[in-house]
Amino acid sequence: MSPGLEHYLVLAALLFSFGVFGLLTRRNLVAMLLCVELVLNAAALNFVAFHRFLFRGDPAGVVFPILIIAVAAAEAAVALAVVISLFRHRKNLDARAADSLSG
Fold it and tell me: 55 partner at 20 to 30 Å CA-CA among 46, 61, 70, 95?
């Protein structure tokens, strides 16, 4: 028995829920960045699942997941640069300490 569309949607909903829960409960900026990646991966999984089960063989359906992966990579690079800069200046990665970017 192969997994159906419902299985993929439940998995994507779980990934999305874990990501949002982590964003709301974590204070560490790196953990928050990982939670944002979980949310983006859940969206990409939804696109791939719907493409596989509704539009079989249409190559245009893989454009959105590739775009999501590219945006996630760019977001991770910029966010990690900001996190490294904050750590060098503030010596901690607490989100409350990073509420203002002045001096």
Answer: 70
